[in-house]
Design a protein that fits this description.
homohexamer, Arginase, Chain A, seven-stranded parallel β-sheet, two-stranded antiparallel sheet, about 35% helix, globular
Chain lengths: ~280, ~280, ~280, ~280, ~280, ~280
């Protein structure tokens, strides 16, 4: 009966699970992410030395898991969007835990309904900018392209990207904020993003594989060459302290590939920081 | 560049992979089954002391893997059926390696085209007789019901079943050959099946979880209370020696949950026996 | 937010966790047993083909986990006893999930308060009959001796035992029901127990290592030479169908040593059968 | 500073490690067997309920590990033979822990020096009767053929064999005691062996993969279809109680493939029984 | 029969194990640390390129493992203190291998007897400054507070701390040397410590989780955001070269969570450097 | 039927496996490296953002695996040399995947035949400069000394070295390019190498353990204190962009010790960069 970080009911923030991973092209299993995070979160302190504040002072709830239509991609995306909107209608800010990266699409759609001026900051190893992948438009590999189509490519910033096809890199460089001068340096790229999205409502979508797999081995595609846990925390804190973050997701944690459970623990810690940063 | 058991090209038998596992409701990963089997098969002898014959005397090929439409269940099922038919048109008997159990449906459809009088012998821990599952008609939990609808429930025999909902057990008992007196004893149930399907073309669909998870830990749903490896070999040999087996599949091997690799090794060994038994 | 097998609140049966494993002398980690069981239980059918009944027709609750005084053995044992009594005072039958075997002692004490004529059936690889172990009276290795002292050694039957010191085997043979003629055959020993404890309220304490480690690798001391899953189910069903079982525990599942999760799955399945058998 | 089972120095029996695994053709790692066995043996009781005797009453030593010439097969075999002889010269019976199966060859050579009338009982999944393997005469796959050449094929009995090439099965059936009527039933084959080797000095060579990989997953080639732990113990006890066992080895435990450590535990338990049975 | 790094007897330095982990609140298993370190240490070179010296020139012994009263916290702490004193009475400097962090308390008590002016340098992810934890005063979470009470809080320096409750951070900042300006930068904080403890006898207590779990996944609570292996070596060498280190411990290595064994290997390497640095 | 990165036949570059690991002194298993790399490489993009080029524009083949004489070190080394020469005779540049480090010796010998002025850049945690190891001249621990003898020690540069015996460090410092001022900083040492080997044909031998085990846990000897994945990529790109690389190998990946598969993935990514950098 593990609940996340001692969550109370009826909070102003909600964390929920969106355990849909059926478009994962290599290693599935991110469906198990939030349950693993809930379990290990019993060992995480509620106090954050980064924010010098404790979750005890934050009101939030663990809103359970999204219902899905198993094996039905389009139907499940519609359901996720609908359920996310219902939670946000109660004036709650939402932290969503994937699932694979495709879940970001309905989540951004739902968020846009409440924040039409939405900007998205995308941390990832992969561009996710394909127009279709393995015969499908709806995929973890196309999701940021769909998001860009939804909110405008200049409302998207992409940080940490180190994998994709030529066309994606080209399209990203020309269309989104792509930071080719800070390819694999999260903090300077993040500093630029702060200036760009100042005063706008911001949604963070965080693919755990932006971290080097040394720091997050439990993921679908462990892409060497990524950032450290310290760099990621620094970048996230820069955003949470300087921008108006109104929604976040964290995706692609596949706990079964990590017997040390540190990827799930990292997920729990990131969520703690998000809860603190979004509750200012 | 592992190929299965030293397969040659242009054989009269073909083994191929059908790595579709997107409807797995608990642990996915059977998409990795055939690659794992190919790798470990380098350590399996070609000679079978059960049949006292060697694969060196059998002509078969490793036909690669089915193409799929990633995340598109219906489209993928159609593709599997189409590709299976193409292989069988060359007068080949087909051994298919899943993937989850849903792949059996298009495989039986394709086989039926060439053998309209087909009978199916189903080894499994689970009935797989639901009419729909988690909102979907097409599922690893409904597949035998779909097969029964396709070829007639009296052309289906189910062996080893020890899990399902009440309605499934009721429907199975009333409609398929279900052997309630030999619930968990494979060999006597198999002996009865031999009499029933004598003289008909037979398709074996083998869910690896018919074995107790002690013998096959690398699977989606490890259901305790199953049979031993010896019992399974005995039952399979009874069928392969006494019936006209014209097609088989082996599904639900999820190798990432088995660091000993013995589930994949078991898969390789079962395929060797199937190749020998189908090449008489 | 996994709950066991879709438990409802306010049932007549209660399942709770007693995650105390500080006296484990070799591999600890049974503290994680019930959380692992809760998680995997989402994949277990509520219907039992053994009983031909479904948990949907049984009223029971997941009563959470016992509070413990971390590192304080005696204090924790007192707390467990007290909390168990409180649950039983509401006229509930209790299924407890350890933790190591020592938790059985306060659980039997609490049960005895409500059923003074209590008999205990003990399934285990180990005698657990030492008088002290590694300098301590309170230990997973002494617990059955303490139970025997509490309720009388002739109210204790021990089945499956295959490890201990000479003195334990001697004491067991002379004092408890020890079945030296059916040393490692569960079913005939169980058949004898049925006759002995007929008409008495019965408590089952089940150490998962009574199973051969092939069937339950996730445990503190994997003792080869044990029974199969089928034998254990057969023995349990004999008791549940023929005796008045008013309390049970299942101990020593250490899930971190079993990447296949089948030991936890076995635990969930045993609890399902216990729930059904105790709710007649 | 783990020592095996609390061994004392200067015993009449010696257990030593022969961690040579460089001819392993698939998964190496049996070099780690004895260290793993030593470690887990701290959790094994010294008392055996099978023999109703305790190791406390047996005088034996842990003689450490053989020195090897790393990467030099012939040189290492010579060294093993020489060192084994030195131990046996002190009138000690030797239990050797591999390493891969090739180590049996120099061990049998050394034993023959002291017991010219030696008979060998071979438990294994594989015939190991090739004349050469992968270009080499000295291999874990040829070792029993070399042993047969050394002591005469009629002094060799092979039990549990279920894998090999046609020629090996043919040669075994015609030359050694091969028991084709009890192919995979250890106990009846063992009963026959007792009669054959009555009154001769007997050496047992036990490849752990005679067990089904359910019972011994930590091994080089996990060959499904083997015996259970109970059957193996029964067969070993038949021999140890009825024959004059003057030397034994246990080979092919590769502990890194078994996170449950039960294969090493099985090894420790077999060694305990061997020590007791050889010290009558 | 693995011994640490080829240790000789009767050295001036001693390394011993203190395998007490019964107050671990999340993942236990540090009891297995020293045995794992001993085993992997056979693969570590005795020569250190950091010190440009070899252990062959250092006289030290592997003093075995502390005796404990299993499950009895207070009794075990007393025993550890007593045994540590006995070793130090022979004018030996002691390196202790936990166990969980609580073992540091009796070790510091024993050391204080010989070095009343003792200062403690504490590397850790966690403050360990609670006054009680989960109902107990004696806990891995209170140990540094107890140490501070024992030797004076200004004799304690804490480096690398990134987790705790608000009160602990407050108390640490106000009482110990806490280095809030170098929160997660080990080397500058260590440089300050050198100045502070110059000329005093120094005891280092090193919780392996000061490292990011990328570098030490085998630990009880893998706390992301830590330092790298290079930073830790740099900090340790600064101290070992510039201060008078008269005692050390290394705690919280739980090897079973790290199939790569690199956490144990790191432990062995740290001990090698400690031996060299303490033997100047 | 996994092939590396979609390799075509008849390319100007060839990648092949040399799965010889019989001289591994601690953990063997690098024989499985290339098969693991082939499998995971299906998930690696062909496009490299580092080079801004795609493998689709490079012509190369997967040349399969070297034949070996199992257990025969000298015979296998001869065979490797012979086979490597045969591939290079077709005017192909060769990328070899070990296997343990010893395979570099015959590979350098073969390369020298075509490029007599060869220089070798050696990335490793270990010096590998012993004159003999565990009784053998041919060993993964002596291989660079043999290479130095073959091409002259001043044609060898060693980078990242952090383990060895005193004599090795002394000999390396005096004879090869050893960079004692940049002991553990890959990039500055690499920058110096560029100047030294400008205009010569260069062979890179890369032992994966030059990386810290955080980044490459799947290796024989996980030596803490190494570089990050970013540093390694930076160093490799410096060389590939500035020198004339005519041959490479990557050795000591032992995938079975890394359940996250990231070490194999790292191997695949390094090979992709090598293919791109060698095909200019």
């Amino acid at each position: 009966m593990a609940t996340l970080l001692g969550a109370r009911e009826n909070g102003l923030l909600a964390v929920w699970g969106v355990p849909m991973d059926f478009t994962a092209s290599w290693r599935p299993g991110s469906r198990f992410a939030f349950d693993a995070i809930r379990l290990v979160s019993t060992s995480l302190e509620l106090y954050s030395p980064y924010f010098d504040r404790s979750l005890e002072d934050v009101s939030y709830e663990d809103a359970g898991d999204a219902e899905l239509l198993w094996g039905d991609v389009q139907g499940s995306l519609d359901l996720i969007k609908e359920q996310a909107e219902k939670i946000m209608e109660k004036e709650k800010k939402l932290i969503s835990v994937g699932g694979d990266h495709l879940v970001t699409y309905p989540l951004v759609q739902a968020t846009k309904k409440f924040y039409p001026d939405l900007a998205v900051i995308h941390f990832d190893a992969h561009t996710d900018l394909r127009q279709s992948f393995l015969g499908s438009k709806f995929s973890h590999a196309t999701v940021l392209r769909m998001v860009a189509d939804e909110i405008g490519s200049k409302s998207v910033a992409q940080i940490g990207i180190r994998s994709g096809v030529l066309e994606e890199f080209k399209w990203g460089t020309e269309n989104t904020h792509f930071f080719p001068d800070h390819k694999w340096d999260l903090v300077p790229a993040t500093a630029e993003v702060i200036k760009i999205f100042k005063s706008r409502p911001v949604y963070i979508t965080l693919d755990i594989d932006v971290l080097d797999p040394a720091y997050a081995p439990g993921t679908g595609t462990p892409e060497p060459g990524g950032c450290t846990s310290k760099e990621l925390f620094q970048a996230l804190h820069l955003i949470l302290e300087n921008l108006n973050v109104i929604g976040t997701d964290i995706v692609e944690i596949a706990p079964d590939y990590d017997p040390s459970e540190r990827t799930a623990f990292m997920g729990a810690k990131i969520i703690r920081e998000m809860l603190l940063g979004m509750s200012k």
